[in-house]
Each structure stands twice: as C-alpha cells, then as structure tokens.
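The pair is quoted verbatim underneath.

:::
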Amino acid sequence: MRICHPLLIAAALALCAAPLVADTSAPAYSLLIDVPGYNHAGTAVAPMWPLTDWLGASVEDGGEWAIIRRGRQVVYLQLPRSMWSSELPIVPLRTVAESVGAEVHYHGADSEIGAQLGHIPVVELTLEGKQGLVIVHGAPPAEVRAIIDDVADDRIGIDYLLRVSALAGDWAKTHEPQFDEACGFTARYVTGVLQRTEEGWAYVLRSSKVSCTQAELAEAGIPLDVAQQLGMEIENL
C-alpha cells in the first residue's frame, strides 16, 4: 500500500472552528454507521432493515408490498417479498422515516453540520427525542457495507469517519475525516483508494494530500483512467 507524504494543514488546530455541540467526543454525533445512505438519482435511500430497526418500526408481508408500521402510522412500499431475501433491500429514506413520525433534514457537505463532520453530507433523523445521522455515500449500501466490513475497525465513528465517495468498477475512493479533541472531525482527513480482489476490498493508497502525481498512482497500481473516474485530483495532467 502506498502512503503519500502528508500535506501540511493550513490552519493550526488552535484556529479550528468551534464544534457545534458541547461534547466533542465522536459518539455525541449520533452517527448511524450501520445505516449507510446513498444518493440515488437525487433521492436518499437506505437499507430497510437497519433503518426500520432504528425507527422502531415493523415490516409486514403484503404480497407485492412491504408494510412498514409503527403504532398507527404506516407506509406501503412496492417491494415484493422475494426482494426481502436481499441482505440490504433499499427503501427511500425520507418516505419511510416521515411516514412513521420522524423528522428528516438533509445537510450537505458544506452545511454547518456537514462541515462539522469533516465535510460529509448526512441526513438527520429525529424521533421522540432521539437523533441519528445517516452518512450519504457515493456508492450503493451493499458496496459500502462490504468495504466497511473488509477495511474498517471498531474505531470508526470514534477516531475517524469513512464515507465511500466514489465507485468505479472494482475500485473505490473514500473520504476519511480524522477525529481531534480540539476540532472534532474538521481538521484532518485521509483519502483512500481501494481495490476489490477475490479476498475482498483492500487499500492500495491512503493519503492526506489533496492531489497525487501520476508517479504515485503508478506506484500504487491505480490506472490513470480509474483515478479520473474516481474524481481524484492528479497533478500536472
């Protein structure tokens, strides 16, 4: 795995913006790591089972429909029972959450909350006094779950966050803000590039630089066209 030399952060930690919550420990952010969101053609979607678990809702078999119920609140989704066998059947996040009584707010990467999380877009869910933040990834939930299972450890959401920002075939790019006690997730981040092999996903490059040279890409074994598809910044191209 290629580790590029770190880029000096322009702002010193002492100059970091104050976090928006009093408690700057990562668990205070209420991140729902097990509910990977995805921007599908402009609509935020999420895996049904972990989402309904968090909402405290049940899922009933309605033939060609999934009936999601919480108390007297119910939503019908055209989701045949045969699709439930999928590990992560996908449902529209806002439709399901609002239909069973939750408030839903989207916060872009450059919003106050997004910036507080190292410029990661999230969907905020609020229900009966509890809050959850769903990271909106740039890859489908099944791919995100596979990547997290293969490369993340139990410190995700505490020492660092992981957002899959792009996918190109058997390649993926991650944006990983690093936690700092003074600044939360705003000061430092790592960009990762992973490749899927028969053994699963694995890093070929992790870098705190904004951009990489073509020589660094070649050393990591990343084809130039793949780097471009992933939206990487390439020097002198």
